[in-house]
Amino acid sequence: MKILVTGGDSKFAQALKNENPELYYTPGRSQLNLLEPMSVKQYTSIITDVDGIILNANSIPKLPDDWFNEASIKEYNNIFSLYVIATHQLIQQYSSRLKFIIGMSTGGVKKEYKKGEPYSYIFGKEVLANLLFRLPCNEKYKHIKMFNINPQGMQTLEQYQDKAKLMYNIVNNYENYESGEMYEIDEVVS
Q: What residue numbers bound the domain in which 174 lies?
């Protein structure tokens, strides 16, 4: 089994790669830019043996002062492009062998918004959670398990490594998870 982890430059993606280098593809933005359709096409034409995807990439623009500013509008459009369009592109490219998609979510999706949490981060994760809730209802995607995992807090290298070990267990037991659901990373599902 081979698993594509988007956002490959992140600490979590690197912790996954350190946990099991043979299992994970962890391309950085220079190898796989999810905001550029040609980059997605090129990467997926080279790396063809993907059985699962962990959607780990983020887009976290600041809350703009001016919503008419073109750069601000583009940053917020990138949230949709990253979580919806790029996810569909990856599914399209890998659909014949894809077994599962795991969205890396946040507790902010299930709980009340807390002061100080980046609005755009929570918004993006809500878009992703909603997408992985609705896509499995489509007959075309019924063969793919799609669910969200809340990794909970990760600040230290040790926490990243601990979560990577838990994720390894999840990907090896993905068939036990229900499509459209959200789970805590330490939630045992059997």
A: 3-184
Instruction: Give the H/E segment covering residue 165.
Output: helix 157-172
Bridge partners (DSSP) of residue 53 are 4, 101
Interatomic CA distance for residues 56 and 82, integer angstroms:
10
Report the candidate in 67, 82, 66, 58 with the shortest Cα–Cα distance to residue 10: 58
Kindly give the confidence (pLDDT) of every residue in the chain, 190 residues in length, as a single tens digit, with 9 standing for 90 and above.
999 999 999 999 999 999 999 999 999 999 999 999 999 999 999 999 999 999 998 777 677 788 898 988 888 888 888 888 999 999 999 998 999 999 987 655 555 555 666 667 777 778 888 888 888 888 888 899 999 998 888 889 999 999 999 999 999 999 999 999 989 888 877 6
Whole-number Å distance between alpha carbons of 142 and 78: 27
Tell me, yes or no, whether 136 lies in a domain. yes
Is 128 a domain residue? yes
pTM of the model: 0.90
CATH classification of the domain holding 41: 3.40.50.720
